[in-house]
Structure formats: structure tokens, C-alpha cells
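Give me C-alpha cells for this 395-residue protein.
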Amino acid sequence: MAFRSHSRREALGLGGVATLAFAGGLLRPADADGQALPEGDAYAPWTLWDATILRQTPFALVATAVLAANPHDTQPWLFRIGDGTIDVLADLSRNLGAMDPFVREMHLGLGCAIENMVAAAGPNGFEADVEAVEGSLADLAERRAPVLAASLRLKRRPPTASELYRAIALRHTNRYAYERERPLPADWLEAARQTAADRGARLLLFDEGDQRRAFDAAVVEATQAIIDDKTMIADSDRWFRSSRAEIDAHRDGPTLEAAGLSVFVLTYARLFPVSPETSHAAWLTNTRDAQLASAPVTGLIAVRDRYDRKATLAAGRLWQTLHLSATARGLALQPLNQPIEMIDRERQTGQGDQWAKRIARLTGDDWQATFAFRAGYASRPAPPSPRRRLADVVL
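Here you go.
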């Protein structure tokens, strides 16, 4: 089935001129604390994803895919739009090196992108069936050419409304402190567990007690282990964008604005050079004393085999669904994947399986954790992250 509406050139060019309406003015948007919010063309996809020119075309689905959660904002995806299909490819050149040696986190991000497209299909007049590529990530040695991860088969149908669709552009990873004493809605927690079970995964949630303390300790110690591993931390640091020029040039990567810093610390970091050692120490302190200490709930997403390609995509889709539904309920979520990254690193280096055994004590031997996170009501709203244009990701 052919999809014809606006020209391909018009759709791929979207993302520049329309930002002038708000970026070219004298006043910059600010949050409740008076801190200026990110602006510029690198953030335009967050406001232009639902543009009239894209609606009810496959480009509308891809425009939501580029807003999905993904590791280190590497945006490791490419899309090939065909006659009734959208192929999702892993752009393996955008890998995280020692931080993600089996591109497991990359495929979690691809699953998030797929879930956004599925959520966008109904409102744009499509039915989308997902066909994931089978195999093991442990056998995926290629690190240069794009590799097919999944295909969406599209069929026309009358448009339908979706609560998750409206949450797509509101969902941001929130690294600020949460409200520890404010409980999460019981119905959301139960629905989250059921959604995981329905998709062949297991969702484990921790609030208090020995398991919560074990989870927190694992995240803190894994963070320190990553900092101490010169190769891992270097592969992480190379994605960080510390200036407006870098953000405009790359349109990806972690930024100061999205790091969960206080207004004072953020202002200082913008004005004065900060050494890598200082930055790493701040990451550890913020993880331990703000993010974990303030979270009412932490959790793990577990699958039967964390290196199974289909299971990894499914886990990513589950995370995106949970994040979208949480956003619709006013909740905030943040990944805390350091312990799982250390499992991958141990396997890569052949240094044993102590981290795998440690996390297995939380999941049980029949399940393997592939995603760790925290959830709660945030003290402040999270800013958006830079995103690439459609022209950058559509083949």
C-alpha cells in the first residue's frame, strides 16, 4: 500500500524554520525556578512532531520515534520507509563502546522507538504489526553498517484517540529529586506489573526493606565501578555535550540542562570549566544522595535472556509504555542502569559474573534484569534533550 501526502523533501526538511517563532524572540522560556529552558533547532522535534504536514503519513510515526527514550541520547536508529512498511535499523556506528559492549542498551532504545510508533499508529490512521529480528546480541559482532532490528507492517484504518500518543512529547527523563514520602498510585503500579506480565517480562518494584537497600547499594557501587573503569567512563564521556555549539552540531548526547543539577550548580558549570574528576564525583553524589535517596520506588525489568534480540526490543517497548503512562499520570521516571552495564562489562572482559549473580538475588535465577530505574513525583519538571532531524535518520 502506497502512502502519499506531502513530498518527502517537505517532510524531511521539517525542523528548522518553524522554531523561529519562539527561538528568535527576546524572551527565552523558563521553568518555575526561573532557569532558562533549552531552545534552538536541536530541540525543534519536540514541538514539530505532530505537524500537519506529517499527519496520517509514515513520517508521522518516525517523528514520534525520534523522541523515544534511548541510552545516553545516542539516538541509535535509522528508518527505511517502504510501501506499507517501516524498517527499524540499529545504527551500530552510534554504539557506546565499553558502556554497552553487546549493544543491548542500544536495542532497548530501538524498542522504545518502536513503541512510540505503535502508540502513534492509531491516531494517524494505521494499524501497526511489529516483526522483530530473532537472534542473540552476543553474536552481533558488526559495529559499522546498519543492521535490521524490526519491521512495522502498516495497514490503513480510521484514526483513533490515544492517551499515550499525547504523552509522547511530554515524556522526558527526570533526574531531579523526587518526593520520597509521596506514594505512587496503586492502580498505576498494578497496571505496570500486569503490562510487563502480558508482554512476557517481569517487573520488580522496591520501596523499603532489604531488597530496596540491596538495589540502592548496587546502583551506587556500579556507578563507582564505571568511574574507576577508564575505558567505560571515557566511552560515556565522549557523548557529553557541554556547550550550545556542541548541541547544535551533534543534536544528541547528555547535556548539562538535563543532568538534574540545581540552578546554582548548573550556572556554575556553564560559566567555569569543570574537570572530568569533578564531574564524575558529582554524578556519584547525585545518584546516591539525590536520586536514590529521594525515590519512593525503584525497580527492574527482567526477561528470560537479556541478550535475546526480540526480548530486548520487547523490554524497551515495555519501558517506553511505562514512561508514557507515567507521564500521563504526572509521574517521573529515570533509568539507573549502572548495575546491568557492569554485568555486560564483566562478560565482555571475562572477569567473572559477580554482578550478574548479585542482581540475580533480586530477580531470581529464572529471570535476568535488563533495565533498572526509579519512579516518583518529581520536585521539578525535566527539560527536553536534543534530537536529530528526520533527514538525519530516514534512509
